[in-house]
């Protein structure tokens, strides 16, 4: 029985299947290297070959089977086992012999070993419009490498010709099976990210907690990696001389350790900075790109101003007005030494009518407000806080002061604000009412 294969279907197949690091160019007939695995594929086709393929598309002949599922993914630990049921329905007018086997795919980290997979039954003759169920058993050996494995489970010998040079011919009667061989991490890092605001000239110490849940001690060797994080280069890396790392040489089995990171910011620094501390922990369960045992650091540097911020505004004779000034403190630095002893922000405020030299018309705040966000959860907390009996955790505090002037003299007023112990603030001027 003849089947028509359109280039649209073929293109969709190529887009969904290929993630191989390879360039197959028909023009130059470049062979695909044997060592390719991982990454992404770019398949280049000669236009004349594509046109020729389109003319011959209706000549394709393959067995018409309806297979479900068409692709499947599993996570299995070394020594683990999983089962998969595949339904194969014969859409032909006559019986079809099927015999599942593995065909390698040239992407993923590793090829799936044939002895890891068994089929029950090993083969079957399927009558027209009948359904055969295959049970696929996947057994991963104890010494299997951690990584991604991928293969095709092929039921017939049919292939689809393509207009492009490929490392293998696509199979119409197959499913794609992917297995992520993994094991739970033995090493827990907290925090994974350190963010905050530091005042120029300030020295601050942060703590990175490492918990070893394994049965063997692990060695650590922290170092500063300032060039990039997750393949993205830093625009403004933290200079090495700003950071000092104090860490033990190892973390014993079933115990915790602390890495102390001291940030010493020069008095003339300003702006935002980024960096990364690579802990260099040898753990087979780690992220295979090495990011599991990295701690990203970013902070902004601010300076205590010496001159006040100024804003002029106009008031009509006899109007009332008020000024509300507020500042926030977020617990960016909950992993820092002394983080709970944060100094509250304050403001030196002056309100004066232009032309009244030397006359201070600034009233005392008519109202002060402190707003606190409290969480009942334990997200993003250091290990010792997670296991403590404390229920409430402060994550954000906002402070505000309100200044009011009633029956004001009309004219241009000047508001001056000199903030202390805060890197940002906001204000609202309300006239009338």
Structure description:
This protein is mostly beta strands and 433 residues long. Helix content is 6%, strand content 45%. It is built from three helices and 32 strands. The strands form ten sheets. Strands 4, 7, 8, 12 and 13 form a five-stranded mixed sheet that branches. Strands 3-5-11-9 form a four-stranded antiparallel sheet, with no helix packed on it. A hairpin with a 2-residue loop joins β19 and β20. The chain is elongated and about 105 Å long.
CATH architectural label of the largest domain: Sandwich
CATH superfamily of the largest domain: Immunoglobulins
Mean pLDDT across residues? 79
The helix count comes to: 3
The top level CATH class name of the largest domain: Mainly Beta
- Largest β sheet strand count, sense and barrel closure: 5 strands, mixed
Q: Give the helix/strand class.
A: mainly beta
- What is the β-strand count? 32
Please tag this protein with its features:
mainly beta, 3 domains, disordered N terminus, 3 helices, Immunoglobulin-like, single chain, 4-stranded antiparallel sheet, elongated, 5-stranded mixed sheet, 433 residues, 6% helix
């Amino acid at each position: 029985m003849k089947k028509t294969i359109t280039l649209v279907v073929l293109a969709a197949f190529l887009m969904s299947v290929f993630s191989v690091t390879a360039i197959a160019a028909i023009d130059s007939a470049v062979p695909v290297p044997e060592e390719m695995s991982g990454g992404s594929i770019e398949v280049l086709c000669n236009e004349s070959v594509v046109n020729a393929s389109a003319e011959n598309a209706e000549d394709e002949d393959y067995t018409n089977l309806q297979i479900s599922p068409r692709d499947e993914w599993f996570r299995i630990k070394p020594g683990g086992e999983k089962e998969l049921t595949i339904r194969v329905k014969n859409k032909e007018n006559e019986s079809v012999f099927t015999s599942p086997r593995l065909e390698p795919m040239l992407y993923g980290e590793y090829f799936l070993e044939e002895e890891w997979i068994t089929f029950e039954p090993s083969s079957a003759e399927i009558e027209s419009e009948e359904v055969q169920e295959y049970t696929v058993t996947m057994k991963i050996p104890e010494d299997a490498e951690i990584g991604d494995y991928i293969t095709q489970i092929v039921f017939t010998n049919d292939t689809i010709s393509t207009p492009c040079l490929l490392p293998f011919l696509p199979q119409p009667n197959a499913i794609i099976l992917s297995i992520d061989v993994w094991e739970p991490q033995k090493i827990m890092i907290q925090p994974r990210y350190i963010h905050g605001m530091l005042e120029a000239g300030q020295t601050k110490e942060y703590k990175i907690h490492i918990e070893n849940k394994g049965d063997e001690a692990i060695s650590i060797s922290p170092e500063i990696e300032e060039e990039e994080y997750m393949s993205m280069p830093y625009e403004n890396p933290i200079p090495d001389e700003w950071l000092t790392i104090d860490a033990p040489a190892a973390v014993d089995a079933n115990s915790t350790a602390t890495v102390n990171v001291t940030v010493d910011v020069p008095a003339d620094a300003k702006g935002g900075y980024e960096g990364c501390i690579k802990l260099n922990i040898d753990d087979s369960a780690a992220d295979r790109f090495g990011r599991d045992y990295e701690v990203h650091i970013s902070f902004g540097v601010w300076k205590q101003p010496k001159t006040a911020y100024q804003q002029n505004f106009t008031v009509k004779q006899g109007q009332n007005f008020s000024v509300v000034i507020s500042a926030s403190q977020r617990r960016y630095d909950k992993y820092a030494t002394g983080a709970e002893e944060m100094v509250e922000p304050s403001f030196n405020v002056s309100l004066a009518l232009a032309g009244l030299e030397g006359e201070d018309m600034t009233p005392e705040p008519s109202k002060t407000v402190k707003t606190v966000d409290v969480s009942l959860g334990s997200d993003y907390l250091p290990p010792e806080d997670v296991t403590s009996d404390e229920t409430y955790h402060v994550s954000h505090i906002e402070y505000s002061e309100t200044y009011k002037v009633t029956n004001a003299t009309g004219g241009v007023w000047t508001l001056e604000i000199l903030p202390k112990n805060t890197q940002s603030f906001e204000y609202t001027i309300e006239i009338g009412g």
